[in-house]
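Crash report, auto-generated. Payload:
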Amino acid sequence: RPLIGVLALQGDVREHLAALTGAGADATTVRRPAELARVDGLVLPGGESTTISRLLAAFDLLDPLRARIADGLPVYGSCAGMILLAEKIIGGRPDQHQVGGIDMVVRRNAFGRQVDSFEADVDFTGVGGGPVHAVFIRAPWVESVSAAAEVLARVPETPGAGEAGGRIVAVRQGRVLATAFHPELTGDHRVHRLFADMVREA
Ligand code: GLN
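Recovered output after restart:
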């Protein structure tokens, strides 16, 4: 069985390990280059993207991770993980590093203060069995994507959604998957199962 790593420098690592296990995958933490080298897929958790990006550099993981993604390593990022996977971000810190992997522009903390956190049921292309309950916590949204990336989910355009309505919140480009929300917090393992299938296919 393929082994899926969870980058364990900062963020909701435990929740991703549990969701991967719940999805039937073998999961382990990744903190060192040697650990990165032996996984078949990697999850970048939710947390604080600035902090995680600094720690990636400090732990000598940034270049090895970029190299493995270029080699076709399947990677899934939730929230802060999505921010790290963007080629470009809006609202980042000057010293924030991008891992890259998806040709998209992501806006940090996009939903604004008043809706620091909210939940919505989103239709998710490639995930069967009805809408996914999406939990957003100081989440980014995807401002724009290139034609190389596939949009998998958007915030529903309900009357109360305001500016958030229709925003892109899940994207896939090749073997790299990103969601602005946190499926690892809901006990619904379908998104992790989709990622585990991507790892198996790779
Ligand atoms: N706002 C955080 C960031 O910019 C992401 C929040 C999250 O991962 N829940 O990194």
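Post-recovery validation: Residues 190-201 form the longest helix (12 residues).
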